[in-house]
Specification:
This protein is an alpha+beta fold and 343 residues long. The chain folds into 4 domains: 114 residues, ATPase, nucleotide binding domain (Nucleotidyltransferase, domain 5); 34 residues, no CATH class; 102 residues, Nucleotidyltransferase, domain 5 (2-Layer Sandwich); 69 residues, Alpha-Beta Complex (Actin, Chain A, domain 4). It is 40% helix and 28% strand. The protein is flat.
C-alpha cells in the first residue's frame, strides 16, 4: 500500500543539467521545462539568498547592483557552485511538480563523458538534496544518440557530436556502450567568449555575452564563396567609455572562431582515427550526427563534411536530444541498467 501511495506522488524526471540551459523531461508528459542555468543570489549579513532562477535570473546577467549576483552554477558542463546548483535543481523540480512537497522522483541526469568521480558525486548529491529518491547518471553523448534516434543497441558504429554550452562531446557508440569518446571544453559559451575578445581587441568595443551570442547565431561560419553579411552591434567604447554602435561582417566572425572550431574538428578526427576499423567502416555510410545548440551554428555541418569526407546530418531538434534520450531510458529498465554510469 505504501509503495502504491509513493507511486502516486512519484513523477520520474530526466534532467539535462547544462552549462547554458537546464531541460527537464517528465515521464509520460515530455519536456516540461527549458530554462537558462542561471541563479540570481542576494548577499547580505545572513549569507546568500536566492532571488530568481532561470529566465528571470538570466535577464539580470550583467545588470545587477553590487549586492546581487547572477550566477551560472555550472562551468564546462560540471558543477562549479554546489550550493547554488542544489537550489536551482530544487526550484526546477518543485516547479515541474506544481510545488507538491511529497514528491520523491527517480531522476536521471546527463553528464559529460569526461566527468571525474568527484564531479559525479557532486551531481548525485545535488539531486538527492533536491529531493530525489534515486539518482542515475547517463553520459551526454549516449543520451544525445538515443534522443537523436540512433540504433545504439545494434552491433554497428554510431557517431554523435553533441556541442553544448560548456563542452563538446564526441563519441562512437555500439552495442549500448561508448567505444571511443572525447570530451573537450569548447562549446557555445567559449565561442561567445572568443567573439567578445575579438571585438574588444579589434575595435576597442566592450560587448556582453548576450550580444556575442546574437552575432554567433546570426552570422555563423560563412563559406569562402558566400556574400559577406553585415550586422549592427552596440557596446561600450573602451577608450571614451561612451556607448557606441558598430557594423561587423560575417567574414570577421569566421576569422574570430577559427581557433575553437579547428580544435573541435581535430577532436572529431582524433575519435575517428582511434575507432576500431570495423566500426569506422560503418561510419562511411552512416556518417556523423550533430546534436546540442552548437549544431545550429550556420555551416558547421558543411565544414565538418569537408574536413572528414563523411556524411554529416543535424539531429531533429538538436537542443533537446540529451533530455529526450535520458527520458526514453527512464521508460526502459533494461536500457537504464545498460547505459547508466555505475554508482
Amino acid at each position: 500500500m505504501f509503495n502504491y501511495i509513493l507511486g502516486l506522488f512519484s513523477n520520474d524526471l530526466a534532467i539535462d543539467l547544462g552549462t547554458a540551459s537546464t531541460l527537464i523531461y517528465v515521464k509520460g508528459k515530455g519536456i516540461v521545462s527549458n530554462e537558462p542555468s542561471v541563479v540570481a543570489v542576494k548577499k547580505d549579513g545572513k549569507g546568500k539568498r536566492v532571488l530568481a532562477v532561470g529566465k528571470e535570473a538570466k535577464a539580470m546577467l550583467g545588470r545587477t547592483p553590487g549586492n546581487i549576483a547572477a550566477i551560472r552554477p555550472l562551468k564546462d558542463g560540471v558543477i562549479a557552485d554546489f550550493e547554488v546548483t542544489e537550489e536551482m535543481l530544487k526550484y526546477f523540480i518543485t516547479k515541474v511538480h506544481n510545488r507538491r512537497l511529497l514528491v520523491r522522483p527517480r531522476i536521471i541526469v546527463g553528464v559529460p563523458s569526461g566527468i571525474t568521480q568527484v564531479e559525479k558525486r557532486a551531481v548525485r548529491e545535488s539531486a538527492y538534496s533536491a529531493g530525489a529518491a534515486e539518482v542515475y547518471l547517463i553520459e551526454e553523448p549516449m543520451a544525445a544518440a538515443i534522443g537523436a534516434g540512433l540504433p545504439i543497441t545494434e552491433p554497428s558504429g554510431n557517431m554523435i557530436v553533441d556541442i553544448g554550452g560548456g563542452t563538446s562531446e564526441i563519441a562512437v557508440i555500439s552495442l549500448a556502450g561508448i567505444v571511443q569518446a572525447k570530451s573537450i571544453r569548447i562549446g557555445g559559451d567559449k565561442l561567445d567568449e572568443v567573439i567578445v575578445q575579438y571585438i574588444k581587441r579589434k575595435y576597442n568595443l566592450s560587448i556582453g555575452t548576450g550580444v556575442a551570442e546574437i552575432i554567433k547565431m546570426t552570422l555563423g561560419l560563412p563559406m569562402p564563396d558566400e556574400r559577406n553579411q553585415k550586422l549592427e552591434i552596440k557596446g561600450s567604447n573602451l577608450i571614451t567609455g561612451i556607448p557606441t554602435t558598430l557594423e561587423i561582417e560575417s567574414g570577421e566572425i569566421r576569422e574570430a572562431l577559427n581557433e575553437p572550431i579547428n580544435a573541435l574538428i581535430e577532436a572529431v578526427k582524433h575519435v575517428l582515427e582511434t575507432t576500431p576499423p570495423e566500426l569506422a567502416a560503418d561510419l562511411v555510410d552512416k556518417g556523423i550526427v550533430l546534436a546540442g545548440g552548437g549544431a545550429l551554428l550556420k555551416n558547421l555541418d558543411t565544414i565538418l563534411r569537408e574536413e572528414t569526407q563523411l556524411p554529416v546530418t543535424i539531429a531533429d531538434d538538436p537542443l533537446t536530444c540529451v533530455v529526450k534520450g535520458a527520458g526514453k531510458v527512464l521508460d526502459e529498465m533494461k536500457l537504464l541498467r545498460e547505459v547508466t554510469i555505475p554508482s
